[in-house]
Automatic annotation (TrEMBL):
Gene3D superfamilies: 3.30.70.270, Acid Proteases (2.40.70.10), HIV Type 1 Reverse Transcriptase, subunit A, domain 1 (3.10.10.10)
Protein name (database record): Reverse transcriptase domain-containing protein
Cited Pfam families: Retrotrans_gag (PF03732), RVP_2 (PF08284), RVT_1 (PF00078)
PANTHER family cross-referenced by the UniProt entry: INTEGRASE CATALYTIC DOMAIN-CONTAINING PROTEIN, TRANSPOSON TY3-I GAG-POL POLYPROTEIN
TM region positions: none
Organism this protein belongs to: Nicotiana tabacum (Common tobacco)
Residue ranges of every copy of the Reverse transcriptase domain listed in the record: 527-642
Sorted UniProt keywords: Endonuclease, Hydrolase, Nuclease, Nucleotidyltransferase, Protease, RNA-directed DNA polymerase, Transferase
PROSITE patterns xrefs: RT_POL
Biological processes annotated in GO: proteolysis
InterPro entries per record: DNA/RNA_pol_sf, Peptidase_aspartic_dom_sf, Retrotrans_gag_dom, Rev_trsase/Diguanyl_cyclase, RNA-dir_DNA_polymerase, RT_dom
């Protein structure tokens, strides 16, 4: 095993060597730390000297009125928060992106952001135009290139003026008038956006209280009255309150959708009926009443206030439903009312509150002996109307109202009774709609409901406004007196009895199934745009499709037979050389979009029937000049010459 004394000597030597190594390592680490501390102190002193020198140079540049950079100074020691480490100062930099502008929107907001950037970065006045011009894009960049050539030295105020003239609203604009005329047509959010855009332009001449008045004046009546009662102190509170009442109305409509009673806002659309059901014998009625001769209302009782009563309550600040003062968050103590009546009582008379009713013929697009078809003009568009003595009110189809862009009054939806007992849900009403029949102007209210076959239905409500009427259903003539003059309306014949005298010596154009669908699609588009109308003409020309270069189809009517019998115009169309001679020495030229240019020319009423054409399902004629007629090019050229 070896000598124990030698092992002890070796262990002692190893321990001495380890102790010596640890001492050397500790000394080396201490020296390294000392050198690093000295270097850190030297760097800190150098950084402090650099910052002091930098501040002195900046002060000199500021006194001289010049800057060594582009005007974008991201750091100022005297104005920026600093982190102190001993005697050194470490700056904190903040990067801001300069806004860009391409000329596609109002420059007012962009110029305001530029001013904020210049103020935050303390940009010198001489550098503002250059910095803003560097961030122009697209059309705005081309505009500044022209301005720079015409006015080499433009200061910032002139730049803002030129930019507002080029991309802002035109001269003579009335932002305050636009703000006054702005009305709510959709949601509150959709109304706020254009209101704030117009208010930015007109804010200099509108006080805070006037801003609130202008905003509330444009709201719909159902929300405006509630907002005015809250007396908001500023525009922000007014907008917030309006959104709150809009949300409340949506919740109320959702919870009261099962009510049978509907209240309109004006005229013939008001109803105040309430339903009652008998209480079964032995059942417990509300409030503990168990008498079998009592009935309770199955729907909430609606108390109708007149306009005078509403104005009086609003002036006193009272709630519409109870006699307490109204405030935000007000809740009526009476959550509902009960109406009790004896079973032996006579049923109340509801003649003055008649529920809207439409005949089965009108809603299904059929015609009977008590109806007559007339052509009505509403907002310049022809509509097929049905005068129906079996319908109580006036109705317009949802498709026609949507196509004409009519404003459907919100909160006026109702259930319309069909003659056979069914109910049709109305989407609302269009009040005070103006329309023409045979050059006679009328104004009426319309319920918006889905109709099949007719655009509008004129019921007894409209017939009552005409006074005494002489109606001949054999000749389909209706006469009445208006302003001391006799007016006669001639109704249109029923399509089912129409016998078209069509030419039989024309070649048939056979179409594939997909072409038939395309023909009907384009025909429906032209009918909706008022380019064509249903026809009873003895003329008829076939329809065919011609494929364009882009793969789409062109709707063509084969007028070759009609052109062969047409008297041709006896003057020539100008050639290109003659037109170029007329443009000699001209300096200014204008242009216009001639897409479907022929459709800008109205057809003579006597010649409309000659343009008739047939599709797979019906017969139509053009109200405007179609393509393919022999004299169409010369007529259009004469219009261009004029």
């Amino acid at each position: 095993m070896g000598d124990p004394s030698k092992r002890e000597e070796l262990q002692a030597l190893l321990q001495e060597a380890q102790a010596a190594n640890e001492a050397r390592i500790t000394e080396a680490v201490a020296q390294s730390e000392s050198r690093m501390v000295n270097q850190l102190q030297q760097l800190s002193l150098q950084l402090q000297e650099f910052i002091v020198g930098f501040n002195k140079n900046q002060g000199k540049d500021s006194d001289a009125g010049a800057s060594s950079n582009v005007g974008n100074q991201p750091y100022r020691p005297e104005n920026r928060p600093n982190q102190l480490t001993g005697n050194s100062v470490v700056p904190r930099y903040t990067k801001l992106d300069f806004p860009t502008f391409d000329g596609s929107e109002d420059p007012l907001i962009w110029l305001h952001r530029c001013e904020k950037f210049f103020s935050n970065q303390r940009t010198n006045e001489v550098d503002k135009v250059g910095l803003a011009a560097f961030h122009l894009l697209g059309e705005a960049q081309l505009w500044y290139h022209q301005v720079e050539q015409e006015y080499p030295s433009v200061d910032w105020s002139e730049f803002k003026e030129y930019c507002a003239l080029r991309f802002g609203p035109p001269l003579g604009s009335n932002p305050l008038g636009d703000l006054v005329n702005l009305k709510q047509t959709g949601s509150i959010e959709e109304y706020q956006r254009p209101f704030q855009e117009r208010l930015v332009r007109a804010s200099k001449c509108v006080r805070v209280d006037q801003q609130v008045s202008l905003f509330t004046a444009g709201l719909i009546d159902s929300i405006r009255l509630d907002v005015e009662m809250c007396s908001p102190p500023d525009l922000v509170h007014a907008m917030n309150i309006a959104r709150a009442f809009e949300k409340k109305q949506k919740l109320v409509r959702a919870t009261s959708s099962r009510r049978e009673t509907w209240q309109g806002t004006k005229g013939y659309f008001s109803t105040t009926t309430s339903s009652t059901i008998p209480t079964p014998k032995g059942s417990n009625a509300p409030g503990g009443i168990t008498e079998p001769k009592l009935v309770s209302s199955s729907a909430p009782f609606i108390k109708k206030l007149s306009r005078a009563e509403m104005a009086e309550r609003r002036a006193k600040g009272l709630c519409y439903n109870c006699d307490e003062l109204y405030s935000i968050g007000h809740q009526c103590k009476k959550l509902f009312w009960l109406e009790l009546a004896d079973l032996d009582d006579e049923e109340p008379d509801h003649k003055d509150a008649q529920e809207p009713e439409i005949s089965l013929y009108a809603i299904t697009g059929q015609k009977n002996a008590r109806t007559m078809q007339l052509l009505a003009i509403m907002k310049g568009q022809p509509l097929l109307s049905l005068v129906d003595s079996g319908s109580t009110h006036n109705f317009i189809s949802y498709t026609a109202a949507q196509h004409l862009g009519m404003q459907v009054q919100p909160g006026t939806s109702a259930k319309v009774s069909v003659a056979k007992g069914e109910k049709v849900y109305s989407k609302g009403t269009c009040p005070s709609v103006s329309f023409y029949i045979h050059n006679q102007n009328f104004e009426a209210d319309f319920f918006v409901i889905p109709l099949d076959g007719f655009d509008i239905v004129l019921g007894v409500i409209w017939l009552q406004t005409l006074g005494p009427i002489l109606w001949d259903f054999v000749t389909l003539e209706m006469s009445f007196t208006s302003n001391g003059k006799q007016v006669v309306f001639q109704g249109q014949q029923t399509r089912s009895k129409l016998q078209l005298q069509l030419l039989h010596d024309l070649d048939e154009h056979h179409s594939k199934l997909e072409q038939k669908d395309e023909i009907e699609k384009q025909r429906a588009d032209m009918l909706r745009q008022g380019i064509i109308r249903p026809s009873r003409s003895p003329f008829s020309s076939p329809v065919l499709l011609v494929r364009k270069h882009d793969g789409t189809w062109r709707f063509c009517v084969d007028y070759r037979e009609l052109n062969a019998k047409t008297v041709k115009d006896k003057f020539l169309i100008p050639v290109v050389d003659e037109l170029l001679d007329e443009l000699y020495e001209s300096r200014y030229f204008t242009k216009l979009d001639l897409k479907s240019g022929y459709h800008q020319v109205r057809m003579d009423p006597l010649d409309i029937e000659k343009t008739a054409f047939r599709t797979h399902h019906d017969h139509f004629e053009f109200l405007v000049m179609p393509f393919g007629l022999s004299n169409a090019p010369s007529t259009f050229q004469a219009l261009m010459n004029e």
